[in-house]
Amino acid sequence: xxxxxxxxxxxxxxxxxxxxxxxxxxxxxxxxxxxxxxxxxxxxxxxxxxxxxxxxxxxxxxxxxxxxxxxxxxxxxxxxxxxxxxxxxxxxxxxxxxxxxxxxxxxxxxxxxxxxxxxxxxxxxxxxxxxxxxxxxxxxxxxxxxxxxxxxxxxxxxxxxxxxxxxxxxxxxxxxxxxxxxxxxxxxxxxxxxxxxxxxxxxxxxxxxxxxxxxxxxxxxxxxxxxxxxxxxxxxxxxxxxxxxxxxxxxxxxxxxxxxxxxxxxxxx
Amino acid sequence: xxxxxxxxxxxxxxxxxxxxxxxxxxxxxxxxxxxxxxxxxxxxxxxxxxxxxxxxxxxxxxxxxxxxxxxxxxxxxxxxxxxxxxxxxxxxxxxxxxxxxxxxxxxxxxxxxxxxxxxxxxxxxxxxxxxxxxxxxxxxxxxxxxxxxxxxxxxxxxxxxxxxxxxxxxxxxxxxxxxxxxxxxxxxxxxxxxxxxxxxxxxxxxxxxxxxxxxxxxxxxxxxxxxxxxxxxxxxxxxxxxxxxxxxxxxxxxxxxxxxxxxxxxxxxxxxxxxxxxxxxxxxxxxxxxxxxxxxxxxxxxxxx
Lengths: 269, 305
Ligand SMILES: Cc1cc2nc3c(=O)[nH]c(=O)nc-3n(C[C@H](O)[C@H](O)[C@H](O)COP(=O)(O)OP(=O)(O)OC[C@H]3O[C@@H](n4cnc5c(N)ncnc54)[C@H](O)[C@@H]3O)c2cc1C
Ligand SMILES: Cc1cc2nc3c(=O)[nH]c(=O)nc-3n(C[C@H](O)[C@H](O)[C@H](O)COP(=O)(O)O)c2cc1C
Ligand code: FES
Hints:
Mean pLDDT of chain A: 94
Cofactor (chain B): FMN
Number of domains of chain B: 1
Helix content of chain B: 25-40%
Catalytic activity (chain B): (S)-dihydroorotate + A = orotate + AH2
Low-confidence stretches of chain A: none
Number of domains of chain A: 3
Helix content of chain A: 10-25%
Largest sheet of chain B: 8 strands, parallel
CATH topology of the largest domain in chain A: Rossmann fold
Bound molecules: flavin-adenine dinucleotide, flavin mononucleotide, FE2/S2 (inorganic) cluster
Low-confidence stretches of chain B: none
CATH class of the largest domain in chain A: Alpha Beta
Structural class of chain A: alpha/beta
CATH class of chain B: Alpha Beta
Oligomer: heterodimer
Organism (chain B): Geomonas silvestris
Shape of chain B: globular
Radius of gyration of chain B: 18 Å
Strand order of the largest sheet of chain B: 3-16-15-10-9-8-7-4
Shape of chain A: globular
CATH superfamily of the largest domain in chain A: Nucleotide-binding domain of ferredoxin-NADP reductase (FNR) module
Mean pLDDT of chain B: 94
EC number (chain B): 1.3.-.-
Number of helices of chain B: 9
Order of helices and strands of chain B: EEEEEEHEHEHHEHEEEEEHEHEHH
Order of helices and strands of chain A: EEEEEHEHEEHEHEEHEHEEEE
Largest sheet of chain A: 7 strands, antiparallel
CATH superfamily of chain B: Aldolase class I
GO biological process, one term (chain B): 'de novo' UMP biosynthetic process
CATH architecture of chain B: Alpha-Beta Barrel
Number of helices of chain A: 6
Distance between the termini of chain A: 36 Å
Largest interface: A-B, 29 and 34 residues
């Protein structure tokens, strides 16, 4: 659905990273972890296209704190990388944005009782918090592996810890947690009977997908692509599927078939 | 005042209002059903259809540029067979004329697709894409050479009795010559413009942004070019015209009608606002009410120069 939403808060949680809360209609409470929204940053034609963001959280502020009626909200966690996100970072309480949401396919939580391994690289942590919240609510055992270049890229870890998620942090430069790649830490925890949910830069996802296959652990990845429509109409956001070759092309739409894919659905080489 | 008369007629097709969706920006219609009332728009134009399914170009395929976007989708589509079995049954239930946009990789394919579509009662008319700048052996050959364009249009004409719209490329020196060539070859209407070929460069990586290197520019950035071309063609050719290019609101659409268009198509705008086509039709009507204009058709070509 398309709707106008009011910015409730927009906080710089780490240098260059913002967490923004927006009001949302009640229907958004049905949003599933892994789905995304398309946000029109300004009414002008610059930037022209909507920008896609995962749901960091969706919740309800109860009536007694929301001034008389329950208020549904959605949160995004975003990194300033260009014009649109720069403008987004300047919004504050009371500003209006136009949203299209919820879009795309969600993570499949998998059977109960499995250990759920969440793997996030940098801003890739964004959709994992909402997922962690849902998994914890179901009573699942959840571990989070968070990686980044340095400590500034490790976002909202305490939020995960407050849920009771066991967290493992690694940074390239060792300024927080272990020094090295998040995949090295993950590798030590892989065993059958677990399930991976990963989001982050493509090289990280590739490494995770290959590792998951080696350990026979089911793995879902949340992918990114340039998007225009977000509803499967422009065919701008495709990625090659596993069987893709130049002679027998097989493209998957990130906005409609994804953004969450089983890692074996995609071509990694 | 009475409700203004928003209907227009286009090569025998009656439209409830002049707003159509542009090929490639509205999927096969169903994608947008949740966002607007498909029965509130004038006509629906499908993604470009080819004889066989087409996978399209490598990625990245799109990038935003100031006031517009470049795309190099590569005419990805489900192919005529899947269109008939999977897409058309849904569209047949919608009370809005469906225009099938078609193209061929070869001259013969144009003829074959046209004759397949001719047999379908759910298709009100065809729009022939002679101008796609993305596919190497495709559109560019036909759409930029009057003789080649004429050959395609004649062949499609022989293969269909349905109203035939020919969609013109702006990537030509003389759009009027192209328009005349297509008119002579039997077009019932002309739509213009398709995207303008452009490119974007990533300075730091020293690479083109699009995998295809070049792509088609659409959106508000191309509106002045499109208006100029519609105006030029309207003065030279008697056929009804469909104005396309950067239409974002009702005022934009009405400007195209003043320039000589009988109808308009909304493209990129549907990406930012999936309800754009319906909204634009409503905005046009409101303009007529506000300015006490009884019929939208009275504005066609009413530009005062
Ligand atoms: C399904 C999905 C979910 C996403 N979730 C989040 C999220 O939760 N938090 C977040 O911060 N970002 C997320 N992104 C990426 C975000 O959409 C882009 O960073 C944003 O669109 C950039 O806009 P801009 O105008 O600031 O940058 P632009 O000026 O458009 O571009 C600046 C730089 O960002 C890169 N870029 C632009 N768009 C994308 C894109 N779609 N994917 C990858 N790189 C891009 C460009 O290559 C360029 O180098 C998501 C993307 C997708 C497809
Ligand atoms: C993503 C995309 C895909 C398109 N695909 C087609 C197509 O298949 N056939 C066609 O004739 N035109 C195609 N077009 C061109 C549009 O129909 C239209 O002519 C152009 O975008 C200009 O209008 P706009 O500025 O309103 O978008 C496409 C445009 C875009 C942006
Ligand atoms: S963004 Fe348009 S098809 Fe995915």
